[in-house]
Amino acid sequence: MSYGGGELLSDISLTLSPGSFHFLTGPSGAGKTTFLKLCYGALLPTAGHVRMFGADVRDMSRDDVALARRRIGVVHQDVQFLDHLPVADNVALPLIVSGRDRTDESENLSELLNWVGLSKRAGALPAELSGGERQRAALARAVIMSPEVILADEPTGNIDWEMSQRLLQLLVELNRMGKTIMIATHDMNLIRAAKSQVQARVLRISQRRLHTAGADL
Amino acid sequence: MSYGGGELLSDISLTLSPGSFHFLTGPSGAGKTTFLKLCYGALLPTAGHVRMFGADVRDMSRDDVALARRRIGVVHQDVQFLDHLPVADNVALPLIVSGRDRTDESENLSELLNWVGLSKRAGALPAELSGGERQRAALARAVIMSPEVILADEPTGNIDWEMSQRLLQLLVELNRMGKTIMIATHDMNLIRAAKSQVQARVLRISQRRLHTAGADL
Amino acid sequence: MTPDLTRITAFLAGDVQADRLVPPTGFTARLTVFVAAAMAFLTVFALALSLATGRLADRWSDELARASTLRISAPMDQREAQTTAALRVLETTPGVASARALSDEEQRALLEPWFGPDLPVESLPIPQLIEVIEDETGYDAAGLRLRLSAEVPGAVLDDHTRWRRPLVMAADRLRLLGWLSIALIGAATAAMITLAAQAALAANAQVIAVLRLVGARDAYIAQAFVRRFTLRALGGAAAGTVLGMIAVLILPSAQAEAGFLTGLGFQGWHWIWPLVIPPLGAAVAFAATRHAAQRTLRELS
Amino acid sequence: MTPDLTRITAFLAGDVQADRLVPPTGFTARLTVFVAAAMAFLTVFALALSLATGRLADRWSDELARASTLRISAPMDQREAQTTAALRVLETTPGVASARALSDEEQRALLEPWFGPDLPVESLPIPQLIEVIEDETGYDAAGLRLRLSAEVPGAVLDDHTRWRRPLVMAADRLRLLGWLSIALIGAATAAMITLAAQAALAANAQVIAVLRLVGARDAYIAQAFVRRFTLRALGGAAAGTVLGMIAVLILPSAQAEAGFLTGLGFQGWHWIWPLVIPPLGAAVAFAATRHAAQRTLRELS
Ligand SMILES: Nc1ncnc2c1ncn2[C@@H]1O[C@H](COP(=O)(O)OP(=O)(O)OP(=O)(O)O)[C@@H](O)[C@H]1O
Ligand SMILES: Nc1ncnc2c1ncn2[C@@H]1O[C@H](COP(=O)(O)OP(=O)(O)OP(=O)(O)O)[C@@H](O)[C@H]1O
Ligand SMILES: [Mg+2]
Ligand SMILES: [Mg+2]
Fold first, then answer.
1. Residue B74 in 3-state DSSP?
2. Domains, chain B, ranges and CATH?
3. What ipTM was predicted for this assembly?
């Protein structure tokens, strides 16, 4: 993978097996976000192949990619919302665009909002949220469809330790239900906390390669 | 201070003495960003008084506020840039808008970009930066004018530990030069690291009050 | 047709949930509506002007282009004979639809403005006038003159060409101008609606990106915008058209007296013309928004 | 004046650094330029149409409104005396600028189309015609008829009112239509430039917010935008105006022959009119952008 200039990531070969739990670390600018974008088809690799659910992204039509994204929940590093809709609607957005009936899921929705601590802010507009609240809303939006894979890019960058723990627990529980989880983070404490609860693998990007970090964390 | 609904912050009285170093902590949504916004005049208090450099913000004209902002460097939590200008120009923006000659400061600028590790990305557009690179660019923009006060809102949320240390060191050095520093963060490690280098006070927002945290961190 | 109709109905009814995804009006949205309305108004006006000048041109052409006069100046005793001879010549001339000698009363009426009603036309050496009406092809004036000079020496053909040509040209010019303005305004309208729709869409780039990221299909995203903007353009153009038609209705109050310039306005089935404007505006907006939405989407992965 | 001029020059020259702060063209920017150009083009056209119809109306009014005819039908021996008497009456009638008996040659010319050139006007009992020219106020036709019936029993006044009124009305209608179109197009232009500028500004809300946050003064921020959009509108309007003027120049090729409808286009100093359009467009854009920028700024703390 390269952005016009020099290569950013090379010689990477990785398969996320269903039900696995991965952390992705590496210094700022190493390519964590880029790697995740490759995983959900927001970028096409300049060389090599990326497969989503068995299909090569290069062979997928735009609609195939859209459908695949409904099976992948993503927490983006620069979270974006529909700024004119309240938080609850934004969290329910994947349901709306995939044509599901929101009323069926309304219980689900309020439970989820409660879990991420946004019940009181459900009617607020995204612009009225604090930084951490935005990230929590993004996580809620990522998991509302109960996707098979969850990719989270620095989901706890702006969140205090207690809330981080709480979100981690949600992800761990989802993992136990068989979901595949991949979290990009630089928060070593979070990784340590996770390791005590699930069997998580830690991947580290450095010198343009993907390394498997040992158990020495 | 309140946003239409209930009160968010109340009974706060604090004076930042020149040359002091403060950390601001508190759970997500407690009001850290709101407090900082009050400090640089982006919000007016619904009750009580805020003084910037001795003048009540309510009595300041819009131009007064603009001039005061040149003496305060702010790292915003949701960093925004001019998306059509390269990083170097964005970092130099405060110089441009205050009518200073950029060429005089070009050495300064490149040194600063080097310190925050963005020399190689100086020509990139903001949209091409990674999350951590954006935050570093924001810090560089905040300090380029050599302001008397520096307010940073989660400046290390997306940055790995080594780089955080490096940025902290920059802030510590500026503090030693007499600048007043206030950092909102939830990263306890960062606070601990700072305490070993400067005499930092830790303020904690909880239950709508500002508390001074003890030395028990 | 039926399935198409269902699709159109579905398009117009829309999906309430999808509809909320597009933010409510901003400046760009208002711009689309206003542009559609203002340009529809101007188009109605230009249309009224064109149709009115067209009618004027038609009348001028009709009244002037197809009549000419033959004057028989001969001694009283030969007048009858020459008139008959001339009529015979004219009857056999290709391009002449009819020819008719004016009666004494008609000649007197023609002269009345100058001489009053008491002119003794019969006893005066006044020439006999013959009115010649052309058919569509027209006749060959030079050839007719030649034949007449041989058979009817006292006949002088005044084919009005001299003074009818500028009038017909002026009329045609007016008509051309009217249609030119319509074409211009139409083109400007289309371009502006296109640009306004694209500007509004560009302002909503984030909405499109977010929708795409959470797994919405291209068709779904495009539809949400296209529907909104098509309806906006339709509404704007309809409002502008109605206002324009009202303005046209109100304006020519002196219609009866000003019979010469057929009043500005629409007559009979011409009222249908302005009704074409709103659907046209909507169609332009539809195409423009669709195109813009698809281009914006193609830039997103 | 001098300080103002310096300010305008400084405004036009701009600050190269400040100029880069506003992003280069997007759809909204292109929209501003295009709207200014298209509407300037249409305005030039409407202006040309208005001026041309204005000239036409003037001609019709002039030629038709101010002449009438007095006809003296009297036995040959009384004609001279009655003509002199009528002229005397006319000379003392208020509102009559001049009155003049037509010579025999003139009368013959008038009758030539009907009777040919050989009519023995002198020996015929043809009435004497007197041409009456009104001054601006016009005369009282009923009063004049009364006086004439007393002093000149054979005089008949034909004041053309019957057939000149519709023509003058038609001419006035044309003129009114022209100016109405100009006013409409002008208003639509102003509104569209305003909306386009505001839309472009709304699209740049983030730029304004960032500038304000890093300590730029309101005047500095507004200036950066106002200058850009004013120049865009000026450029667009200038391009549209030039194109419009070229189109107007090219169009009336048959000018000489179509003398009746004074050719579409500008004559003499009227060429100055279209040159007013670009500065006007720029002024509208200036005011609109300034207003919008200041409003956007006031919403920011
Ligand atoms: N669109 C782009 N065009 C060019 N370069 C880009 C683009 N996006 C990212 N980059 C560069 O690629 C590198 C990796 O970016 P990426 O966002 O993947 O880093 P990251 O590991 O997520 O870092 P962080 O922890 O700071 O978020 C960075 O140096 C970044 O500047
Ligand atoms: N413009 C606004 N209107 C209404 N409520 C707001 C607005 N901005 C912030 N809030 C609310 O005020 C509370 C405090 O927000 P603030 O951004 O100050 O939190 P914070 O301490 O910075 O949190 P974080 O660590 O998550 O960034 C939050 O609950 C937030 O939703
Ligand atoms: Mg990243
Ligand atoms: Mg905050």
1. strand
2. 2-71+147-216 (3.40.50.300)
3. 0.80
